[in-house]
Specification:
alpha/beta; FAD/NAD(P)-binding domain; Guanine Nucleotide Dissociation Inhibitor, domain 1; seven-stranded mixed sheet; five-stranded parallel sheet
Amino acid sequence: MAKSVIVIGSGFAGLSAASFMAKAGWQVTVLEKHEQAGGRARKLQANGFTFDMGPSWYWMPDQANGFTFDMGPSWYWMPDVFERYFKQFNKNVYDYYSLFRLDPSYRIYWQDAPMDIPANYEALQNLFNSVEPGSGELLDKFLQEAAYKYEVGINKLVHKPGQSLIEFLDWDLATGIFKLDVFNSIKSHVAKHFSNPKLQQLLEFPVLFLGALPEKIPALYSLMNYADIKGGTWFPKGGMYSIVEAMHQLATELGVQFKFNENVQQIVVENGIAKQVKTDHHIYEADVIIGGADYHFIETQLLPKAYRSYSEAYWNKRVMAPSCLIYYVGLNKKLKNVLHHSLFFDTSFEVHGKEIYTTKQWPTNPLFYVSATSVTDASVAPENCENLFFLIPTATGLQGDTEELREQYFTMIVQRMEEKIGELILPHIVYKKSYAHSNFINDYNAFKGNAYGLANTLLQTSILKPNCKSKKIKNLYYTGQLTVPGPGVPPSLISGEVVAKLVSKEFS
C-alpha cells in the first residue's frame, strides 16, 4: 500500500509539494483553510471584476459588476522556473495557460518624469545611455555577472534542502563563491557599475521585497536583475490565479485529494511521531506531514511546546520581508495612459526603505506600486472599466492598522497617481477593498503580518533559515517562504519540490 502524506495549505509551495509527492507514488491529501486553492494567491471576483488578491473589505456591490482580482502575487518573472516545473510532469505551461510578454515591462514615475522600461535589450541599453552616457555598455558587464549568479543560484543553490554544509561541496559553488558576490551588498555592487541615482534605484528595486535595505542584501541577488531584464516580465491570461488553477489541475490529475474549508487546529504527536492532523471538521492520519502554512503558526499553535524546533525568542530575532497595504479598485472608466505595471518612485527610496526595515514605522510618504491588469486582459473588468491593484510596502509587526489609516494612505497615493497621469480616479471608483496586516494574520496566520516571508539576508540563507525538516518530529516537514529557498512564487515552486524529494529520499 502506498505511503500517505498530508500537506497543510495549498499555496504555491503546498501545491508543488503535493504534486511531487504524488508523482513519487504517495497518497496525497491537501488540507486548505479557504474555499479555493492558492493560499495567498487567491482570486477575488466582484460580480465580474477579477483581482489577484495577494493579498476590511469595503464594498460597493451594486456597482461592482464584472471585476476579478488576483489577491496576491502580480509579477510573473523567471518563466524558466515555471517551464521547468511543468516539464517534470511531462507538461508545458501552455497546456494550461497563455502568456504575454509585457512591453514596456513596466513604468517608473520619478519626481520629474516617467520612464518606460523596454522589453527589448538594445532599447534598454539606449535608455541607459540617455540617462548616463556609457552605461549601456556597462550594463552588458553587469548582466554577464548576473547571468552567472542566476545560473548557479537558481539551478543549484535554491535546490539545496539546507540540511548540511556537505550539500555545498560542489565544484561550481566552491570555485565560484566570490563570483557569486555573497559578501558584498547589492547596493555597493550596483554603485560600482552605475553612478546615476535613477539607474541605481532601477537596479535596486527588485530586492526591495527580499527583506532588507539594498546595503544589507547580498550582491548575489543581482540575479533578479537578470530575471527582470533578460527573462522578461510576463502576464498569464486571466491573471496570476491561472497559475494556481494550472497547478491545482495538475495535482488533481496526479491523484491528489483536496479538502477545502478545513481549518487545521492541531497536530497530534506521540513519541516524536506526528500521528494525526485535526481540523475543525475531521481527523486525518498519514505517514508524513508537510506544513505549507505559516511555519511560525504551525510551530507555535499546532504543535505541543515540547516538540517545537524553535523558541519564540528565535522567531522574534528573525528579519522579516515586508508586509504591505493593498487596495483592489474598480473604475467605471478606462485610463488613457497607464501601463500594466507602474512603480511610483516620486518620493525618497531611502527614507521609505528605512521606515520598513530600520525604524519599522508606518511610512510618511511611501513609494507604491500599481497594477492595471485590465490594460493587458480585458476579461478581468467590465467593458470600458479598469481594474487597479495598489500596493504600499510596509514594515511587519506594526500596530494601528485601522480603517481610518488605510483610507488616509489610499487618498494620499491615489492623489499622487492622479497628478502623475493627469486624470481623475477618485470620482470614478465603483469598487474598493483594502488588505493589510490584520488580514494577513487572520487569513493566513502570517507571522507579524508578513506578506513575503523571511528576509533573504546573508545570515538567513540556506542552512541559516528555519529547517525544512522538524528537529524533533521524525515525519514533519515544512515548505514555503519561511524556509528554503525563500520568498517569491518561483522559489515557492522550488521549495515544494525540494521538500518532496527530501521526504521521498528519507522514507524510501
